[in-house]
Design the sequence.
């Protein structure tokens, strides 16, 4: 066992400490991608509007472009009359100049003629004669239209750096003529599965005692959800040197390293030593005050985050979701992750919890009622039955039945 960092070697941290304090320096570089490939990617810098949008004043209703002042006081009893002098054409620069007392027919989306400052809805007019618009309702300046720079001023931020691009962001960039975007390279997250009992998930017939590697494919999905690119380095037997060699080999092509299993009491010193051999400063925490996730290891090896997960698939997935995904996002420059979908619900029973330890509890939610699911952390079926999970904070000694809880939903 290494003597260096002996104190940290036994450091148990809270979930909050891990989320706020574990920040290895590694960040991915940037690349340019076309909009078609940019969904979910993280802009490396703010995308700025090269010009005002929409770029010209546009009608937002079908009706008549007018000077609002010409409609003041108009009512059913005392209509105003405007001379209809033409039509604003869709997709063409305006050709007609509006004079006092006149109106121009206009459809939604067409450019307003110069001097027009509002569009009167066709429903608020009557037409006594073809060349005359009878106005029965006044409009204020700006009604029925958007200004030339109302969607974005020239130079405005269309999409912030660090927030995954969504469908509407891509639409906004397209509207501004930005066909490519500078994004962060997806962090390469290498998962090394450990365990003498593990066999590849594709193994058809199991010998008694063999276990398919179920964690790796599930972790790969969580890596993708966090914007990373998963890689599976395969299954390594329970052997410190083999693990160290595999991790060493994965280093050059990884931005985050994940060791699945081998961090429970018997094997943990071996795993910790293999991880610590990868680089300085090494182990940052050796245990989380968090259930299910106590044996979690976190290390900073030359700036590269290394996460040692508990072996039980359920614990591994919970820890990776709560602690690992934020690390993948950190490395990939995702400073503004999307808010997690949540629902408020009432607990249908008491939920015990030890003080000083956070608990992640799986739950079903139906009609505003949350039912916690209990069972061995080796059971994946608890996770597949759950709609989401709730966190009983460190300070709490449990939650009484009927408490209002916030359930974070699985997508
Ligand atoms: P360990 O942390 O290595 O003691 O593993 C704890 C439990 O999780 C054992 O029952 C392992 O068989 C199981 N386990 C570890 N890794 C995996 C995996 N990748 N897939 C499925 N089960 C696993
Ligand atoms: Mg094991």
Sequence:
């Amino acid at each position: 066992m290494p003597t260096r960092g002996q104190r940290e070697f036994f450091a148990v941290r809270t979930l909050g400490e891990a989320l706020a304090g574990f920040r290895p320096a590694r960040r991915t570089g940037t690349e340019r991608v076309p909009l078609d490939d940019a969904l979910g990617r993280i802009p490396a810098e703010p995308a700025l509007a090269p010009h005002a949008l929409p770029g010209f004043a546009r009608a937002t209703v079908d009706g008549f472009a007018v000077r609002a002042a010409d409609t003041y006081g108009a009512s059913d009893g005392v209509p105003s009359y405007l001379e209809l002098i033409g039509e604003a054409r869709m997709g063409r620069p305006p050709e007609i100049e509006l004079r006092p007392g006149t109106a121009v027919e206009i459809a939604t989306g067409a450019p307003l003629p110069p001097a027009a400052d509002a569009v009167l809805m066709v429903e608020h007019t009557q037409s006594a004669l073809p060349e005359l618009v009878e106005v029965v309702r006044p409009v204020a300046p700006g009604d029925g239209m958007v200004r030339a720079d109302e969607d974005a001023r020239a130079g405005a931020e269309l999409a912030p750096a660090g927030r995954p691009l969504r469908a509407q962001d891509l639409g906004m960039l397209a509207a501004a003529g930005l066909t490519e975007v500078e994004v962060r390279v997806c962090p390469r997250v290498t998962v090394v599965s450990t365990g003498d009992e593990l066999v590849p998930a594709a193994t058809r017939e199991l010998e008694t005692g063999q276990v398919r590697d179920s964690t790796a494919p599930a972790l790969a999905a969580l890596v993708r959800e966090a914007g990373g690119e998963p890689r599976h380095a395969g299954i390594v037997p329970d052997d410190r040197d083999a693990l160290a060699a595999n991790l060493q080999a994965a280093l050059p092509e990884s931005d985050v390293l994940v060791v699945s299993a081998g961090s429970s009491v018997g094997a943990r010193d071996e795993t910790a030593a293999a991880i610590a051999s990868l680089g300085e400063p090494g182990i940052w925490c050796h245990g989380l005050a968090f259930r299910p996730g106590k044996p979690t290891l976190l290390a900073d090896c030359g700036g590269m985050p290394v996460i040692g997960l508990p072996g039980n698939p359920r614990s591994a997935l919970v820890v990776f979701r709560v602690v690992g995904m934020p690390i993948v996002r950190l490395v990939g420059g995702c400073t503004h992750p999307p808010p997690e979908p949540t629902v408020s619900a009432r607990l249908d029973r008491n939920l015990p919890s030890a003080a000083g330890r956070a608990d992640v509890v799986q739950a079903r939610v139906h009609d505003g009622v949350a039912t916690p699911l209990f069972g061995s952390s080796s059971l994946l079926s608890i996770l597949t039955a759950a709609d989401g999970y709730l966190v009983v904070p460190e300070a709490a000694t449990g939650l009484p039945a009927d408490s209002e809880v916030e359930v974070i939903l699985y997508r």
